[in-house]
Design brief:
226 residues; alpha/beta; Rossmann fold; 7-stranded mixed β-sheet; 7 helices
């Protein structure tokens, strides 16, 4: 599985194949997730340092910079080719891309963002990753984890179609909450997003009323330290 992430030039094509069913591109989903992050992040909690954990080729890191222009953004990933691609493509002095093993040398972060990272981690190693995130989070920081919702049929089909999702073990919201609790993190809120594909886009204005109904294409859990 890892070798698929070692070819950043082909990542876009693989991603497009997986999400093609929805009629939307990756930017639609990035915007949707960050709209929620920005809306729920109050001015008093404005993060000084943000970590995009599992940043891939850096698209979300770049968008986080636009949403939080006063923040330092650090993107980190296991794939060195993806990081090299991001460094070459995104030239911004307030965005850095570093290997995961370098995170231990970093100061704590006020906001940590993950999208579809945990389901790529072997089940036996997931608690270790959540524990690491705990150690990287500042005392008043916020951890945002977005994951694909196993209860959504469209999501299940998209994951089946994605070459880089072959063989992964999906993670249910209740499982993620348990991992967070074991690490000393409290899940403060949970939201479900992306209910309607492009051909039903006229229904999207009412999605905000469905965010507590566990059927959206993705779910988000917001956690803080106890």
């Amino acid at each position: 599985m890892q070798e698929l992430f070692e070819i950043p030039e082909e990542y876009e094509a693989m991603l497009k194949k997986g999400i093609g069913l929805t009629g939307n591109d990756k930017h639609f989903f990035i915007r949707g997730r960050l709209d929620l992050v920005e809306k729920k992040t109050s001015l008093k909690d404005s993060p000084k340092r943000i970590l995009d954990f599992g940043c891939g080729t850096g698209a979300t890191s770049e968008n986080l910079r636009l949403r939080f222009p006063e923040s330092e953004i650090v993107g980190s990933d296991l794939s060195e080719p993806a990081l090299a691609y991001a460094r070459e493509k995104i030239q911004d002095q307030n965005i850095r891309f570093i290997a995961l093993e370098k995170l231990q040398d970093e100061a704590e972060f006020d906001l940590i963002y993950l999208n579809c990272v945990i389901h790529h981690v072997p089940v036996a190693q997931r608690q270790t990753i959540i524990d690491q995130l705990f150690s990287l989070l500042s005392a008043t920081g916020t951890l945002w984890i977005f994951e694909n919702n196993p209860a959504n049929p469209g999501t299940r089909w998209a994951m089946y179609s994605n070459p880089f999702d072959k063989g992964v073990v999906k993670i249910w919201p209740s499982e993620l909450k348990k991992l967070l609790k074991n690490a000393g993190l409290k899940t403060e809120a949970e939201y479900f997003i992306f209910y309607f594909p492009q051909w039903l886009s006229w229904f999207r204005p009412i999605e905000k009323f469905f965010q507590k109904i566990p059927l959206g294409g993705q779910y988000a859990q917001i956690a803080r330290k106890y």
